[in-house]
Amino acid sequence: MNDSMQTKKCNKTIEYYNKNAKQYVKDTVDASMFEIRRLFLLKLKPEGTILDLGCGAGRDSKAFLESGYKVVMVDGSKELCQIASEFTGEAAICSSFQEYEPNRFFDGIWACSSLLHLDKKDLRNAIIKYSKHLSEGGQFYMSFKYGTFSGERNGRFFTDMDEDNMQKLMDDIPGLLLRDQFITNDVRPGRGNERWINVIYEKEGVNR
Question: Tens digit of pLDDT for each residue in 154-183?
């Protein structure tokens, strides 16, 4: 996929979320991510800083803030950024993953069902870029719909992942060590037959 085609796919995906923000919030804001957040936070220092990459309605950011963490929220959808800002009381940054340039280091990066909207080339580039802003020993969580599909589905672009494709994607990305990988069922009502692959990588360096 060339750059112009991917830009169109990205813009179409963002526009989907702008048009369907209220329904998306209704479908996701009460979805329980408690156990996965717990696993993610296990190695983070107390009151550390987390980048919520693709914050959506701010569900997870709010939980992190209430647990004493500092959170930077980023999302490509203006509508969702507004909702997330109101929901959490913190300003969300409206930017695509390709355009956002962090100006600090993070103890953790939380990319819950967000980077899956990039094609494999942009996905790899995004992981490399953001991992450079992860502190030594920091945690990088990502989740993808389980499978091998790549393309448009339900008005959005998706890159699905399974164990083999995840390994191929990450094998040549330096500085990140796989700490956890597990499959979960979708926690949204009526979606329990859908599966997700979840991974947590650690930035090489001094363990916390």
Answer: 999 999 999 999 999 999 899 999 999 999
How far apart (Å, rounded) are the C-alpha atoms in residues 10 and 115? 11
Q: Answer yes or no: are the C-beta atoms of 85 and 58 closer than 8 Å.
A: yes
Domains of the chain: 3-117+130-152+174-203 (3.40.50.150)
Q: Which of 42, 35, 44 is closest to 71 using CA atoms? A: 44
Burial 170-189 (b: 16+ CB within 10 A, else e): beeeeebeeeeeeeeebbee
Q: Which two tokens stand for residue 32?
A: 């329980």
Rounded to 5°, angle at Cα 92 from 24 and 2: 70
Cβ pair 130, 51 in contact under 8 A: yes
Structure tokens at 197: 């692959």
Alpha helix positions (H), the chain? 3-19, 21-28, 34-41, 59-66, 78-88, 120-131, 163-171
What is the per-residue pLDDT for 4? 44
Q: What whole-number distance in Å separates Cα of residue 73 and Cα of residue 137?
A: 21
CA distance 150 to 158: 6
pTM for this entry: 0.92
